[in-house]
Specification:
Layout lengths: L31 E3 L5 E3 L6 H25 L5 H25 L46 H22 L8 H46 L6 H10 L1 H22 L12 H9 L12
Antiparallel strand pairs: 1-2
Organism: Plutella xylostella
Pfam families: JAMP
Protein name: (diamondback moth) hypothetical protein
Length: 297
């Protein structure tokens, strides 16, 4: 490889035109990223475990929102219809995710070729266009984290397409069409998720394990707080004997474990023993937080 002058800025690079000739400094083509020598190199690395966990988190967001709005919009309806809609929502998101993986290189497989993020700035190359000699700005905006940024947009687009294709057909089979409002909700939350991802993708990438752990603890506490009897035996019995409560509790534990593994990797697995801690802490201490037991002096 011939020696070429390095380019200004963090993300400006040169593309090799032939054996001895290089392009001017600029943005690398899609699927490439500049290296320390300002050469545009193809993204050929395999995703790390953390990368896959990030993608999993971004996929879980619409799935959980689907399930939440299905529950909210079908209160008092037939259980079979609600379960069918839950399964349909899972199929929608799973098929959208699979479709996005299949269309990205290497096409036709669920494998990915990525440029692993190295810094927060990799997600916001638009903010790092250099201005040599304080004259004209050299535009080098590119997807330095290819394809971790665009794949989320593809997943959401394909999942929404599957939602408006499959769900109306499903709910039309049962009268009086319970869950129709849940489809409308998805037409709102998908654009909101896209907007959040567009603006805060890098921040989410580095903070999602903490977000998962905090949200799982908060939702676990809110789930227990709606129970009328806040005594420890009652909370424990309803969590074990009621099927819906047991499913919700196990779901919280799985999400909490997901956050812990994302934070620690597969190195210190003993941290997983802390998964039941938030639920047990609430059950054991709820009786001491009853406002009716507070006496004014």
């Amino acid at each position: 490889m011939s020696v070429v002058r390095t380019c200004p800025g963090l993300y400006c690079g040169r593309t090799q035109l032939d054996q001895e000739e290089w392009s001017e400094c600029g943005a690398c083509p899609r699927g490439f990223r500049t290296n320390a020598s300002s050469h545009c190199e193809p993204c050929a690395a395999a995703p790390t475990l953390y990368d896959w966990q990030y993608l999993g988190f971004m996929v879980l967001l619409p799935l959980v929102l689907h399930w939440f709005f299905i529950d909210m919009c079908t209160i008092g309806k037939e259980k079979k219809s609600i379960i069918a809609q839950h399964i349909c929502a899972f199929i929608e998101v799973a098929s959208g995710t699979l479709g996005a993986l299949m269309v990205l290189p290497p096409a036709g497989t669920v494998a990915l070729h990525v440029c692993t993020p190295q810094a927060l700035s990799d997600w916001y190359t638009l903010l790092h266009n250099p201005q040599p000699d304080y004259k004209e700005v050299l535009h080098c905006t590119q997807e330095a984290v290819y394809p971790l940024y665009t794949i989320i947009l593809l997943i959401y687009a394909f999942s929404l397409l599957m939602t408006i294709t499959l769900r109306p057909w499903l709910i039309s089979m049962s009268a009086p069409n319970p869950g129709k409002k849940a489809i409308y909700c998805s037409l709102y939350f998908y654009p909101i998720l896209v907007l959040i991802h567009t603006v805060a993708a890098g921040l989410i990438y580095y903070s999602f394990p903490y977000i998962v752990i905090i949200i799982s603890m908060m939702t676990s506490a809110s789930h227990f707080s709606v129970k009328i009897d806040q005594s420890a035996p009652a909370l424990l019995m309803t969590s074990v004997t009621n099927t819906r409560n047991l499913v919700i509790l196990i779901g919280h534990w799985l999400v909490h474990a997901y956050g812990i593994i994302s934070l620690t990797g597969l190195v210190e697995l003993w941290y997983l023993s802390l998964v039941p801690a938030p639920a047990l802490f609430y059950i054991l201490t709820a009786q001491f937080t009853d406002p009716m037991k507070i006496h004014n002096d």
